[in-house]
Design brief:
By secondary structure, the chain is α/β, with parallel strands linked by helices. The protein has a single domain, classed as Rossmann fold, CATH 3.40.50. Helix content is about 40%, strand content about 20%. The chain contains 13 helices and 7 strands. Strands 3-2-1-4-5-7-6 form a 7-stranded mixed β-sheet, sandwiched between helices. Helix 3 runs antiparallel to helix 12. The radius of gyration is 19 Å and the shape is globular. The chain starts with 6 loop residues before the first helix and ends in a 5-residue tail after the last strand. The model has no long low-confidence stretch (mean pLDDT about 90).
Length: about 290
């Protein structure tokens, strides 16, 4: 039983995920191309925005002493900028990066002039970014990665922590999501039922405990419906399966389009999003 208190145990467990459907699913979601396509329909509905739990997140950070005027924040995988702008409104100076230009374009369109001098947008891939060359080691009061494929490996997670001089916050799926479209297409294209376990947030949390860090953890059930055009969903699914399947593009196009046309209503598709997220907020002081 002592092994579960050793960081090597959890790093090894994390690595073993690379042989599972879970890893393949993450790989499909890990490309800029996928998120460029997804950005067109991201954070468009009020219920989806509510599911980001912005006020609750700000409250957690305040309780932990990680939200204050003049603080510096690094956000890995900033998406359309909802969290970065909320932090800037509370006095933070935010460096927000994403590897998807589509997401950054959406962010730029949302960014208001009163916050522009508090937010720096960067087009960067966290996996290849050199924090030493950037001079980012222990430079930020808070480093955040919410639902980000950028910290899907232990190496990327440790690099995230290395940039913080005070604390970090991570969020990910903590239970199996309801992927109706993905589940159907996966079985058809990949030839077996989808066995997608939760993302790496659970490895992250256990790894933190093994390091002597004790995060504050909250769980949230999130649910919303999203209406997208058939062509938008076709683009999303093609970007995903082009990464995980070795089938010819023409065959993928036919399988995906035929299925989407069968479930569309006047070429509009309603996607039901439901899942459980976990958010962990923690101090990095024992590592400094």
């Amino acid at each position: 039983m002592d092994s579960i208190f050793n960081k090597s145990f959890w790093i090894n467990e994390w690595e073993q995920d690379k042989s599972s459907d879970t890893y393949a699913v993450h790989k499909g979601f890990s490309t800029p191309e996928y998120w460029d396509k997804a950005s067109a329909t991201y954070d468009k509905s009020e219920r989806e925005i509510q599911a980001r739990r912005l006020e609750k997140t700000l409250g957690l950070l305040k309780q932990k002493g990680l939200l204050f005027e003049g603080m510096t924040v690094l956000e890995i995988g900033c998406g359309t900028g909802l969290l970065a702008m909320a932090l800037a409104k509370n006095g933070a100076h935010v460096t927000a990066l994403d590897f998807s230009q589509g997401m950054l374009d959406q962010f730029s369109q949302r960014l208001t002039s009163d916050l522009a001098d508090r937010i720096t947008l960067l087009s960067e891939d966290w996996h290849t970014l050199d924090i030493q060359k950037k001079g980012w080691a222990k430079q930020f009061d808070l480093v955040i990665a919410f639902m980000s494929p950028g910290v899907a490996t232990s190496e990327a997670f440790f690099k995230m922590m290395a940039c913080s001089k005070n604390g970090c916050a991570v969020r990910g799926w903590a239970a199996r999501q309801q992927h109706e479209i993905l589940t159907h297409l996966w079985k058809t294209i990949m030839g077996s039922p989808l066995d997608d376990k939760p993302q790496s947030i659970l490895y992250k949390i256990n790894l933190l405990f093994s390091l002597g860090l004790f995060p504050d953890i909250v769980f949230d059930t999130v649910e919303w419906d999203q209406n997208v055009s058939l062509e938008q969903e076709f683009d999303n699914q093609m970007a995903f399966f082009s990464k995980v399947s070795d089938k010819p593009a023409a065959l993928l196009e036919k399988i995906i389009r035929d299925y989407l046309e069968s479930i569309s209503n006047q070429r509009v598709i309603t996607k039901k999003q439901k899942g459980l997220t976990a958010t962990a907020v923690f101090s990095v002081s024992p590592l400094i």
